[in-house]
Specification:
Length: 504
């Protein structure tokens, strides 16, 4: 970017035979744009390039001093190994960021500040105080420290803060609940990662309410150690995500405007008979519940607007006794309003071997329109497809890790394929309702090993309208001549004359 025209560049223009004075004004239109527009343009550049523009002129130096969005996570160290180490250590100790903030006057507010730093707790406190002085609205902190790291209290009562994301390695501690509840009146997004609660688990019992977070709309919590019980009742909350909170035993969600809920890798299996869940969120649209042990007591209700649900419970055959099946049923029954269902691959394998578990889903999801399944073995899907006989859309995502070692010679492959075709044909009676309702089928990661299920759906899908096959890695690399495979599939007979077959 050239803000000022040098004498040499002007001479080159004058010597250009196509140069016309009428078409040249000599004005620097970019430099004369308002600060807000220039700030928006600079926002597209990494911060190192923004700093470099400050040497162009006094005007551009002022732009750097007033630039409102400081993202220091985009700094790329030099390529030389030695200078890379020196640059990395010098920058990541946080001193550079602190000096930059200290040079700004109180009229140069910081809208957003993001950084990754290795620093002491006292150094972090100083940096945060400068950010608060500059009325920071969005703060994204990722800190590595060997100190005992306590949550910076100057953030809590900061009246301008809208977004706070904090991640510390190894972890950090929250202040007492009475202090936490005294602030955050303007916060809209909160993300906490690697929080160590110790004996302070009760800190979060009644913290996430309208009294403490009246404006909160997004809450993300990851790796919160010793978190046993969590209650969330913020009235304006729209998005909640909990991840790797392994010690969680009780979860209560009572936010009336919640739209998206993601809970993964929570609830330790050793506490299966002491755990409970209560969810009452009438506006919930999307639910992801994966890698969680089944909870003994469940009250999932009023999910009347639930559109898509993803379910993946960590269970074994031993867990699915009478009491375990009752626990699964009480949880899944709350999801019966879902229009689209996605099942985790591990959970699919369990379902394929447990008829009572299949029956639970069959009885609860008879109105399902869309079903998505991910698996490494297509054959195990036959039992699961009985769950939702009236779906219109079926999406199968095949993982290909098993295919490289499968069927090493052509003879064994041909025999196996013949057996698989006979197996699918034996399922026609049980899958009859599905074959009379299925209109759209999509298979991702498809290869020649999955040709039997493709043939079955084409030959028996009575109302099939669209069938899309997304070729897997083996086919895309030219493995076993994919064009011949396509030609073979195109030659299969089709029960529906309206079906359109496509390859991607």
């Amino acid at each position: 970017m050239h803000a000022m025209e040098t004498r040499s560049s002007k001479t080159r223009k004058l010597r250009n035979p196509n140069y016309s004075p009428e078409n040249y004004t000599g004005d620097d239109r970019i430099t004369h744009l308002p600060d807000a527009i220039l700030h928006h343009i600079l926002l597209l550049l990494p911060i190192k390039s923004i700093v470099q523009t400050s040497i162009i002129s006094k005007r551009w130096r002022t732009l750097w001093y007033t630039f409102p969005d400081l993202d220091f996570t985009t700094i790329i160290p030099p390529a030389t190994p030695l200078t890379k180490i020196l640059h990395f250590n010098n920058f990541r100790n946080g001193d550079v960021i602190t000096r930059i903030l200290s040079l700004r006057n109180n009229l140069s507010d910081v809208r957003s500040l993001r950084f990754i730093a290795c620093m002491s707790f006292s150094g972090l406190q100083i940096l945060i105080r400068h950010a608060v002085r500059l009325s920071v609205q969005e703060l994204d902190i990722r800190v590595e420290t060997s100190d005992t790291f306590n949550f910076p209290r100057s953030i809590i009562t900061h009246e301008c803060l809208r977004v706070l994301k904090m991640k510390a390695c190894p972890n950090f501690r929250l202040p007492p609940s009475r202090i936490m509840r005294s602030g955050f009146q303007t916060l809209q997004t909160l993300s906490l990662s690697y929080v160590y609660l110790g004996n302070q688990s009760s800190n979060l019992a009644d913290m996430f309410t309208d009294c403490s977070f009246p404006q909160l709309k997004k809450l993300h919590m990851k790796s919160c150690y010793n978190l046993n019980y969590l209650r969330v009742g913020c009235r304006l909350l729209e998005e909640l995500e909990l991840k790797k909170c392994f010690s969680l035993q009780g979860l209560e969600i009572l936010s009336p405007r919640l739209v998206t809920l993601k809970v993964s890798s929570c609830f330790n299996a050793s506490n299966i008979y002491k755990t409970w869940v209560q969810i009452d969120t009438p506006r919930l649209h999307s639910l992801i519940w994966v890698n969680n042990s089944i909870t003994s007591n469940n009250c999932v209700q009023n999910l009347v607007y639930l559109h898509d649900a993803t379910v993946g419970l960590l269970v074994t055959q031993q867990d699915l006794d009478a009491e375990g099946l009752l626990s699964v049923s009480s949880f899944v029954s709350g999801l019966s309003h879902a229009v689209s269902l996605t099942l985790d691959p591990t959970f699919i394998e369990i379902m394929s071997k447990n008829n009572p578990l299949v029956a639970i889903f069959f009885n609860l999801f008879t109105k399902l329109n869309s079903l998505e399944l991910q698996t490494s073995e297509v054959l195990c899907l036959a039992g699961v497809l009985k769950v939702c006989p009236f779906i219109h859309t079926l999406i199968i995502k095949i993982t290909n890790s098993y295919k490289r070692e499968r069927r090493r010679n052509r003879l064994s492959w041909d025999l196996s394929r013949s057996w698989e075709e006979k197996y699918w044909e034996s399922q026609i009676k049980d899958l009859g309702p599905l074959l009379h309702h299925l209109k759209i089928a999509k298979i991702h990661g498809f290869s020649e090993y999955d040709i039997s299920v493709v043939k079955f759906l084409l030959q028996h899908g009575k109302v099939l309208q669209e069938f899309i096959l997304y070729l897997g890695d083996d086919c895309s690399r030219g493995y076993r001549q994919p064009e011949k495979l396509k030609s073979r599939i195109m030659g299969f007979t089709r029960a529906s004359v309206d079906v359109k077959l496509a390859f991607h």
